[in-house]
Amino acid sequence: MDFSYKYAGNLYLNITNRCFMACPYCIKHKWENKFRGNSLKLDREPTVEEVIKSIGDPTKYGEIIFCGYGDALIRLPETIEIAKWLKSKNIRVRINTAGLANRYYHRNILPELKGLIDVISISLNGTNPKEHNEINRPMFKEESFDEIIKFAKSAKEYIPTVVITAVELPGLDVSKVKEIAKSAGVLFRSRPFLDEYEEQ
Ligand code: SF4
Predict the structure, then answer these.
(1) What is the distance between the alpha carbons of residues 22 and 81, in angstroms, rounded to a whole number?
(2) Exposure pattern of 161-200 as b/e (b: 16+ CB <10 Å)?
(3) Is the shortest distance between the CB of 191 and ligand 1 below 6 Å?
(4) Fewer CB within a 10 Å sphere, N or C end of the chain?
(5) Ligand 1 pocket, 21 CB below 6 A?
């Protein structure tokens, strides 16, 4: 049960296994909740203190990223507390999210992240509400697609770098997602589709 794990010179925080989506392609299924030698299955969610303890010296890493087999924004108060601690040490902080937190909390949570998060990566695997719902099985069904784009646009006001990402899933027109990101005025990055388990 790892609350954090290293990858490519960065440290990733795995603070929850709860998620706004239930993507059938999620590597946690294929990789049995492991990620490159780390066990990301949580029997319970860690406290803020436990996460901070698992980080150790944060200055060793280029960037610290909230990204595990779950969505950190589902634990907003804890994410904010951990990010505050990281920022007090001048660490670059990123969050990878499904972009559904505003809908989940029924309010705009983005102002609460201002000054704490440097980069937000918002995954958008779908080019329209129907396709997005079919591919990702999000909590808010077909309403999720527009909600995510709205979230990305709003994030620009509070977070210096906003990126929409898409996984190169078979059948997904990633170039269309890139266009959507461009229209929203945010950056775009495609991510490889991980099929085979990689130990490192
Ligand atoms: S949003 Fe990410 S962690 Fe959550 S189910 Fe989808 S791929 Fe898995």
Answers:
(1) 26
(2) ebbbbbbebeebebeebbebbeebebbbeeeeeeeeeeee
(3) no
(4) C
(5) yes
> 22 CB under 6 A from ligand 1?
yes
Q: pTM to 2 decimals?
A: 0.94
Q: Indicate the residue type of 166.
A: A
DSSP state of 196: S
Residue of the CA atom closest to atom 7 of ligand 1: 26
First-to-last C-alpha distance (Å) of the chain: 17
The two tokens of residue 110 are 């983005």
- Strand ordering across the sheet containing 10-13: 4-7, 10-13, 64-66, 93-97, 119-123, 161-167, 187-191
Report pLDDT digits (tens) over 143-184: 999 999 999 999 999 999 999 999 999 999 999 999 999 999
Sorted by where each begins, the domain ranges of the chain are 4-191
CATH annotation of 4-191:
3.20.20.70
Q: Is 26 in the pocket of ligand 1 (CB under 6 A)?
A: yes
